[in-house]
Specification:
Layout lengths: L1 E7 L7 H11 L3 E5 L10 H6 L2 E6 L7 E6 L4 E5 L12 E6 L2 E7 L9 H22 L4 E6 L23 H13 L2 E2 H5 L26 E5 L7 E6 L15 E5 L14 H4 L8
Parallel strand pairs: 1-2, 7-8
Antiparallel strand pairs: 1-12, 2-4, 3-4, 5-6, 6-7, 8-10, 9-10, 11-12
Helix pairs in contact: 3-4
Length: 283
């Protein structure tokens, strides 16, 4: 069994205590992080290494940023940045192979205010993602594409859909692009396991502290290539994190895959600080 999670941290250094606590509680095998909001040199590699994870990352000062963590080993980097626009300076995509599975970690543009230039950029980026994902399907690569898609696919993915009709995450163009990926063969893992349940990964911050439960949205997704369809065993959201001290506005989404020949996971009592003693973390 291999467990993969995706989490928009909304600042990896500011939320580092949340991240380390969460990693220690769940022992996910692969973790994708988005919205790091830090330059490469300030990524907290040592703290993550001490928690038992090797990491690669693609940072950007103050904005964006993505990372892939692997428990007890270093992810093997395959790509950073999507093809199709050599002038795009945003750090929004990184890809690695871990235990025979290709994992793409993405932070799709939000697109607000919409309509406008930011929404146009979002749709162009989405088109590039679709084109690249089609290449992965054509090559038959066993892949999970996960992260913050900034797309609410259907009305069931919003606690109160009418609140979001003027937001880029709910615009018809955004939803059609996401539906295009599903039409190409990608499998929405959380929705496959929970076909009719209102399940959310994001909530607005509340002015009085805490969060506004009525603002719930599902826009953090784990898409599986068809080769993984029969391997999916479970999926969900660690929603409890949204109530922790100084949380992100997102909660982690996760999946469990039953893959033949997958490695045995280390004992929970193992000394995590020593697992990566022979690895040198870094992008």
């Amino acid at each position: 069994m291999i467990r993969i999670a995706t989490f928009n941290l909304n600042g990896v250094n500011g939320r580092l205590p949340v991240l380390i606590k969460w990693l220690g509680q769940h022992d996910y095998d692969i973790v994708c992080l988005q919205e790091l909001k830090t330059s490469d040199e300030k990524f907290p590699a040592e703290a993550i290494r001490n928690a038992g994870y090797g990491a690669i990352w693609h940072g950007q000062k103050s904005y964006n940023g993505v990372a892939i963590l692997a428990r007890g080993k270093m992810p093997l980097e395959r790509r950073r940045g999507l093809p199709g626009d050599s002038g795009d300076t945003h750090s929004r995509y990184i890809e690695a192979e871990v235990d025979g599975v290709v994992v793409g970690c993405l932070y799709l543009p939000n697109g607000n205010p919409a309509p406008g230039p930011k929404f146009d950029y979002k749709l162009r980026w989405f088109d590039r993602l679709i084109s690249y994902s089609q290449l992965l399907l054509t090559e038959g690569v066993t892949t999970v594409l996960c992260g913050d898609y900034n797309v609410v696919p259907t009305p069931i993915d919003a606690a109160v859909p009418r609140r979001w009709v003027g937001d880029a995450v709910y615009f018809p163009e955004s939803r059609r692009a996401y539906a295009k990926m599903l039409g190409d063969g990608w499998i929405d893992a959380v929705r496959r396991i929970h076909p009719e349940k209102g399940i959310y990964t994001y909530w607005n911050f509340s002015y009085g502290g805490g969060y506004d439960r009525s603002s719930g949205l599902r826009m953090d997704h784990l898409l599986l290539s068809p080769a993984l369809s029969t391997s999916l065993r479970d999926a969900g959201v660690d929603a409890a994190l949204r109530a922790w001290e100084k949380p992100s506005d997102h909660a982690p989404a996760w999946i469990e895959l039953d893959l033949p020949g997958n490695r045995k996971t280390p004992s929970p009592t193992a000394d995590k600080s020593s697992i990566l003693a022979n690895f040198v973390p870094g992008p």
